[in-house]
Design goal:
TIM Barrel, 9 helices
Amino acid sequence: MRVDAHQHFWRYDAKRDGWITPEMSVLRRDFLPDDVAPLLTAARIDAVVAVQADQSDVETAFLLSLANRYAWIRGVVGWIDLCAPDLATRLERYRAEPRLKGFRHIAQGEPDDFLVRPDVVAGIRTIGAWGYSYDILIYPRQLSAATQLVTQCPDVRFVLDHSAKPAIASGALAAWRTDLTALAAQPHVTCKLSGLVTEAAWREWTAADITPVLDSAFALFGAHRLMFGSDWPVCLVAAEYARVVELIERWAEQLTPSERAMVFGETASRCYGLDYSAPRSVPV
């Protein structure tokens, strides 16, 4: 089963989606499952994981409603208030949602010490105890805090989104690589090869710009802790869906068949606990 482990869906709202700047105007419209289905079929993608883009319970409910309509949305990474005093009660409400696999907070928009705040750590431990994973969305400067977090939560499954957004456009990768090494030393962390084209020069990037990042991630995590994600539709500011898939496929030609299978599905399926019983073809 080939999996795209990182997609977003939304009905565009100018006020809510203020993060979409004028330079990203291609994203100022609705993006829903029917829009991406033909692209998935063309790329031989069988299943996707839908990831939150808004920090609200409404967002989680929206993504779950889509997952309940489209069998190929095998998993949802939603949002929940990690610091809510009734967090356990809120989690209890999701027991009947088997496609909810984990949660994410947009930590890149928080102070750099957000992930090591005691109340945040406690909340992440709680969702882990309930069997959910936690997606880490950060900038490179926050990698140290992320390492401290995962060290304090050895029983939680963590997924690092977008390889921590290395500064591909500027080529300043040395500090990112050093700090990523410390995080990758924690065996309960996996890494997404996603969102990289948007960290490169949007209109000028080449595969050669991104290959050093892919090589570093592979060296540090190994194929068994890497997963492909397109970051569609955000990727559209820098590349069409097919080009994003081609980028990772071309790079992965150096891997063994079993390693390619891990990157393109097995790691995501294991980490998120994706259902293999649903139909394996994406209807157009």
